[in-house]
Amino acid sequence: MSINSFFIRVWGARGSIPTPGESTIKYGGNTSCLEIRCGDELIIFDAGTGIRELGLKLVKEKKTKAHLFFSHLHWDHIQGFPFFLPFYKEGNEFDIYAEKKDVGTLQELLSFQMKHPFYPVPLKDMASKMTFNDIGNDCKILIGDAVITSYRANHPDGCLSYRIDYNGKSVTYSTDTEHNSKIDENIYKAALNTDVFIYDCNFTEEEYLKRKGWGHSTWVEGIKIAKAANVKKFIMWHHDSLHNDEFISNLEKEVQKSFPNSYAAYESLIIELI
Asked: Which residue from 121, 141, 195, 218 has the highest number of Cβ atoms inside 10 Å of its Cβ?
């Protein structure tokens, strides 16, 4: 990769709960974690179980600084947080971001899940330096030459989608959002003219009819946004825990009939933009 490279790598794309086993080998069973490199800057989105393996890779790289953005704090997006080894090394630095909550700061909420009897090591005993940032809708964060913009999504307890712009290219990460009768203006703005649009495709249309209000969407609704927003590449994300490899492969073929440049996210998928 060049010094100005821009690429994404998937470490986990499963929704709700990890699904290890023979039937999920192709697409993977780890919950949400996305690595993005903008030149020398490392930006991570969500800390599902996929972040554990990313941490092992970073230890070998001796990477000491990164930025972690949470879409929200439901279990499948924070499960891997305590098992991310770089957090435990003195001298490492992390800027951590999530949507501001009335029930506590980001630091307080992450600390809670690591208190006895849930976990044996409290957050305060992690040796790295962590800076916690409570943000909201339409925040712009500058990381090197990259700009990360937040957009509120439609999900129980709140959720943020993110757009990453770097050197004239862009990626939109929009997990855990439920569509409405009209195209969601926030998600549309996040996806407008983006090179890679990562979108919550948890349900099929038939499944969604039984699960309205759960905070998830379908590929049909995602493609509506992709076409309206002039998206170049569409990535299916947050695979339902009951969808095995065969099911997702068949779904991907169906999606490609409507939008040929579409793919189901799988662990180790790398997309280079620059």
From this structure: 218
